[in-house]
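Lecture 7 notes: from sequence to structure.
We start with the chain below.
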Amino acid sequence: MAFVDVSEMETRESEFWNPEKGEELIGEVVAVKEGQYGKKFLVIETEEDGVFITTQCGSLHNLINRSGVEIGDYVKVVYEGRATDEYRTHRYKLFIWQDDNEE
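Predicted structure tokens for the same chain:
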């Protein structure tokens, strides 16, 4: 193991992912971070469109915690729109790529 000088690493430009209902974001997780209010979010690098930062909403936070998603995982995040209950929370699905030989 060795220290890596991150000051020499290339800076990744990123933007917030603001999806419409039914849109999905597919790519490699380059960071799992915790936001200002303790909600986790993902930084995902796509093959074609660059780097995106997901929202810090409670439903996605819970999916991140339950799944154990880590840096390097290949994921798909699907925005399902707002719930129809009184809270109108944002709803997401989170999928993690798993090779056939993995358990």
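Points to note: The CA atoms of residues 34 and 40 lie 4 Å apart. The radius of gyration is 15 Å.
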